[in-house]
Specification:
Blueprint (H helix, E strand, L loop, with lengths): L8 E2 L12 H8 L11 E8 L15 E4 L2 E3 L3 E3 L6 E8 L8 H15 L5 E7 L3 E8 L2 H9 L9 H13 L4 E8 L10 H10 L2 E7 L11 H14 L2 E4 L4 H14 L2 E5 L10 E7 L3 H4 L2 E3 L3 E3 L8
Parallel strand pairs: 1-8, 6-7, 6-9, 9-10, 10-11
Antiparallel strand pairs: 2-12, 2-14, 3-4, 3-13, 5-12, 7-8, 13-15
């Protein structure tokens, strides 16, 4: 796992897994078009729901319109339900405040793995407390993931942003869909990576964040409302989603994540008429007829076009 030099993390030595083929190469082959080397294919995973929250299926390429920095783009790749491999990192908060829920988290996570992982998919598991620990490298072997979950221990603080930073970097080496699922009861309490650094890494590495927020009590007293807001915003900015653990427990929250990932449209385009000098390009996806049907369209807010500058 390639990580920022100053980021404190413990990673056990495991067998390396060959990197997936690049997304642009795979999609170009599917479309039987020559690979464009001059411009990077921008890929979006889009979820559409109606005003009741029900998933909207059956949309076509012609239903969507995309702009980048306000400039119209041409959709060149479109899939209703992506069969693209899913690379997912499950990041579980094991700080002191979550100790009482440890067994519940382990059992719910195991059910989630069995319901979601297909042969072409891979998952890794990390836990975060004062530091970030890798419990399982990327694999599709359920038994290995189970063993990693059984090793969850932890105590101390909550290095949430370090977990997002490290998890996003590791996912960035993979192809296909890249998803980071966070299970936590609050915000960051460790002086490490910042919110902005964590978000930038997620966007640079095309990682969708799903936040499962397990609040300790219903009333606002004792809750980290600032931390909850950060988790919600991280999900919104990266095209993921947040869920609160309610009466259905973690099982229900994990099931919602699984359903959301199974109902994504995949849209790809090669940027045209880019405004020069922009490091970050903002993307807007619309469905013109949504003005009357009140669709809710969810996707990442944009991408970084320039390489990341190293810290001094």
């Amino acid at each position: 796992m390639a990580l920022r030099p100053d980021l404190k993390i413990v990673v056990p030595s495991l067998l390396a897994i060959a990197l997936s083929l690049g997304l642009a190469l795979r999609l170009a082959a599917q479309e039987d078009k020559p690979l464009r080397l001059d411009v990077k294919l921008v890929s979006l995973f889009v979820n559409v729901t109606d005003k009741t929250g029900a998933i909207v299926g059956g949309l076509t390429k012609e239903d969507f319109k995309i702009t980048e920095d306000g400039r119209p783009q041409t959709i060149q790749v479109f899939e209703r339900q992506s069969e693209m491999p899913l690379n997912l990192t499950l990041a579980i908060d094991t700080s002191s405040s979550t100790y009482k829920d440890r067994y519940i988290e382990q059992q719910a996570a195991k059910k989630f793995v069995r319901a979601l992982i297909r042969q072409q998919d891979q998952m890794s598991v990390i836990e975060f407390n004062t530091y970030v620990y890798q419990l399982t490298d990327f694999t599709n072997k359920v038994a290995l993931i189970d063993r990693g979950l059984d090793r969850m221990r932890g105590a101390g603080g909550t290095a949430l942003y370090d977990a997002i930073y490290a998890g996003s970097q590791a996912l960035g080496k993979k192809g296909g869909r890249k998803v980071l699922v966070l299970v936590t009861d609050g915000g960051d309490t460790v002086k490490g990576s910042t919110y902005d650094e964590a978000l930038e890494q997620a966007l640079r590495n095309e990682v969708m964040i799903y936040s499962i927020i397990d609040v300790p009590i219903e009333a606002s007293a004792g809750r980290d409302l600032g931390g909850e807001h950060a988790l919600i915003t991280l999900a919104e900015q990266t095209g993921g989603k947040h869920f609160y653990v309610d009466q259905g427990g973690l099982d229900k929250a994990f099931a919602k994540v699984s359903d959301d990932l199974r109902t994504q449209y995949m849209i790809g385009y090669y940027p045209r008429n880019q405004e020069p000098g922009r490091a970050f390009h903002r993307i807007d996806v619309t469905i013109p007829r949504a003005a009357t049907e009140s669709f809710n369209i969810r996707h990442k807010t944009g991408y970084y076009a320039e390489p990341q500058k190293n810290k001094e």
